Amino acid sequence: MAGVLSLTPADQVWVSGTHTTLASGVALNWMTQGSLTMAVAGGLVLYTAGVQPSGESPNQERGIALHAAQGKVSARAHKNQMIVAAKTQVRLASTEADVQLSAPSKHLLATAAGAYIRIEGDNIELGAPGKVEFKASQRDWVGPASVAGEVTVPEGRFQGCEPHLNAAVRRQEACADVG
């Protein structure tokens, strides 16, 4: 085996006053039988160019992959926003349970090509530049689950368009264009 080998049955510490660089021409592997902890004060950046793997690479997958054989994977932004973006497709899926999206103090908005679904408070709003279709083997349009508040109709005097109203009266029509 050529190269440098550093072994110890106890602890090993690497310290530098400015920068530490680990570089490899083919692969860099970190392995532990316990846990791996990285603590960073100034931010963490993971970058991959996504180039084709060499034939000797045991991992032929490209990009960045997070896998947990057991336990959960958690990604959080405690004091700012989180952005997940992709050029082609973003997929959230659960293979055996449900998927939950929540925004307890604001609204939940899903948009695609100008159409949208907004869930805010106890309201659901649908909007589309084209048609909206509801498809189901059964439709049950029931009233609201709860009603609060009072509807007031503003007072005022309606004055229709006088020429239209007079023409309707002359023709003895039951309905008139009030213009």
Description of the molecule:
Residues 2-145 form the DUF2345 domain. The structure is a single chain. The protein has 179 residues and is low in regular secondary structure. The mean pLDDT is 82. The protein is 5% helix and 9% strand. It has a three-stranded antiparallel beta sheet, with no helix packed on it. The radius of gyration is 32 Å and the shape is elongated. It starts with 106 loop residues before the first strand and ends in a 9-residue tail after the last helix. Strand 1 (107-112) and strand 2 (115-120) form a beta hairpin. It has one helix spanning 162-170; strands at residues 107-112, 115-120, 123-127.
What layout of secondary structure does this protein have?
Layout lengths: L106 E6 L2 E6 L2 E5 L34 H9 L9
